[in-house]
């Protein structure tokens, strides 16, 4: 497993990270969750991503249990705050109150004294940015959080945060966590150029488009049993990728993958890592074999011919409009 700097910070992360959205505490039983984390550790993954909201706080508990007893210095534990974790008006968003309360609850569930990377899961249009950044900065000064980042923020929102942090001497954002894969490239035009200038790295999510880029969803066929597309809670998130056009094009990627000596899943993860502004790709898994397969994308260089061939096949199925990066106008 290779490591990369998280943006311009001194922190190194495994270029393939492991995340537990929709899986731990939800789609998979605890035994499978623990087996996936064990496989990730065994394969050299050191960076683990979760969020307070995943499985309504249960995912953090499972992650905490899975990582318990592992030498803390050998791990980078990342979590997030923003989406609702309770029914009250202050159980959500990026107010000082919710950030402080959520951070303490995450520390308890994750069974750790500090969070390596604490991320604002979306932009909060109802809280002054200065309030959010000061709360994050206080957590850093208290040693409860080591680095701060954001997720799915627009270029102008990241730029505003960098400016305020500079003016007020507050801790700076070192990362952004956007969706990024061969089909979903909405960060390329605005977010990446800004982040390159500001030394902010991308920790990208859904590098295999939730399983679609593995080629296991076939055009004209029902989704395989036991996949995210058949999971009660996961299916709603994956449907927009399950069009006949996309599924047919994914099958056409097979020769390029074979020529590169990779499976389609490995090709998809490796594709995200070709972008030098990407610090890590976060993979999800329901079985340890998936982790073991996907980590083989670490250290792979794809040729310029392969990259061009992939673009040619995917054509206008690729989504590039930066307007798709957005946060709720009011708190969810
Ligand atoms: N910041 C955000 O807003 C945000 C949003 C979403 C995710 N994330 C982060 O990104 C992480 C990864 O997201 P993701 O789970 O969508 O990533 P992904 O790696 O694109 O998809 C993972 C899913 O694909 C299937 N899969 C994985 N490897 C496979 C293989 N080799 N063969 C066949 N199927 C395979 C598995 O689902 P099945 O076996 O069920 O089909 C697995 O759960 C999350 O855990 C979370 O940490 C962040």
Unreliable stretches: none
Please, what is the average pLDDT? 97
**Structural classification:** alpha/beta
Mass-distribution shape:
globular
The helix tally amounts to 12
Tell me about the biggest sheet? 8 strands, parallel, barrel
| Helicity, as a percent range | 25-40%
Rg (C-alpha, Å): 19 Å
Please tell me about this protein's structure.
It is a single chain. With 332 residues, this protein is of the alpha/beta class. 36% of the residues lie in helices and 14% in strands. It contains twelve helices and ten strands. Strands 3-4-5-6-7-8-9-10 form an eight-stranded parallel beta barrel, surrounded by five helices. The protein has a two-stranded antiparallel sheet with strand order 1-2. Helix 3 links the parallel strand 5 and strand 6. The longest helix has 15 residues. The radius of gyration is 19 Å and the shape is globular. The structure holds NADP nicotinamide-adenine-dinucleotide phosphate.
């Amino acid at each position: 497993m290779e490591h990369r700097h998280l943006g311009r910070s001194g922190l190194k992360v495994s270029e393939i990270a492991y995340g537990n959205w929709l899986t731990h505490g939800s789609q998979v039983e605890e035994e499978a969750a623990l087996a996936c984390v064990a496989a990730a550790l065994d394969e050299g993954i050191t960076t683990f991503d979760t969020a307070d909201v995943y499985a309504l706080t249960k995912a953090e508990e499972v992650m905490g249990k899975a990582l318990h007893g592992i030498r803390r210095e050998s791990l980078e534990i990342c979590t997030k705050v923003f989406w609702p974790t309770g029914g009250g008006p202050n159980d959500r968003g990026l107010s000082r109150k919710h950030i402080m309360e959520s951070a303490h609850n995450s520390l308890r569930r994750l069974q750790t004294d500090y969070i390596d990377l604490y991320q604002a899961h979306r932009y909060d249009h109802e809280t002054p940015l200065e309030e959010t950044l000061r709360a994050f900065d206080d957590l850093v000064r208290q040693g409860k959080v080591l680095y701060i980042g954001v997720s799915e923020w627009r270029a102008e929102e990241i730029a505003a945060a960098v400016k305020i942090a500079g003016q007020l001497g507050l801790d700076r954002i070192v990362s952004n966590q956007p969706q990024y894969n061969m089909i979903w490239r909405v960060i390329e035009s605005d977010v990446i150029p800004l982040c390159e200038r500001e030394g902010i790295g991308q920790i990208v999510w859904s590098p295999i488009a939730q399983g679609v880029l593995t080629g296991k969803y076939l055009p004209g066929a029902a989704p395989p049993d036991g996949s995210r597309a058949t999971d009660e809670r996961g299916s709603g998130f994956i449907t927009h990728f399950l069009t006949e056009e996309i599924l047919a094009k994914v099958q056409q990627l097979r020769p390029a993958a074979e020529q590169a000596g990779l499976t389609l899943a490995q090709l998809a993860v490796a594709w995200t890592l070709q972008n030098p502004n990407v610090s890590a790709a976060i993979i999800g898994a329901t079985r340890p074999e998936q982790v073991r397969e996907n980590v083989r994308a670490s250290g792979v260089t794809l040729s310029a011919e392969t990259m061009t061939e992939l673009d040619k096949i995917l054509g206008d199925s690729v989504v590039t409009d930066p307007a798709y990066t957005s946060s709720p106008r009011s708190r969810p």
